[in-house]
Amino acid sequence: MGKKAKWAWRSAILGAASASATAAIMMAKPKDPTFHLISISLTSLELNLPVLDAELILNVHLTNPNIVSIHYSSTEMSISYTGSLLGSARIRAGSQPRRSCQLLHLPARIRGLQLAQNAGRFVADVGRREMVVDAAVDIEGTAKVFWWDHKFKLHVDSRIVVDPVFLDVIDQENKSEMEVFIA
Predict the structure, then answer these.
(1) How far is CA 6 from the centre of its chain?
(2) 149: which residues sit within 8 A by CB, 6+ positions away?
(3) CB-based contacts of 162, cutoff 8 Å, min separation 6
(4) Which residues, in sequence order, are bridge partners of residue 121?
(5) Over the stretch 23-77, which tens digit does the pLDDT of each residue have?
């Protein structure tokens, strides 16, 4: 009955190392960055008879929740209205520090001819002061873990409800899917 339990230091160290490795793997699992369109600014209108083209700046809040910084290449975001390509926004190559947020200013061009093809729907949306716009982008880059660069591809689909009169963002839904290549 008075037998003392013998403490096994080897088992304790192995258990602590296993728990630490499991925690490190769970923290290192890549998480999808988040994107939120904060505002839209009209910079210019260009008359291309018989329609107007618009130049805009899209202000997008980007959050990198990962424990490593990322570097991404330049790309184009497609902007659609009622299933038709309306325009595009340019994303310049850049980087994002680990666990940080930054505001991106994306120059965009909206083609009035595409909008004119949906004139009836557009006029109704202006009357309701709600216009649903879809955007999609594929972003490729690298994330550096220690001395290895891991390539990734991020696909983002956004559905944005905008006031077409004042260009206010009313609502948005963003879905992203990231693929990491380990090689």
Answers:
(1) 55
(2) 142, 143
(3) 40, 130, 131, 132, 133, 168, 169, 170
(4) none
(5) 665 555 677 888 889 999 999 988 888 888 999 999 999 999 888 888 999 999 9
What are the structural domains of the chain?
30-180 (2.60.40)
Q: pTM higher than 0.85, yes or no?
A: no
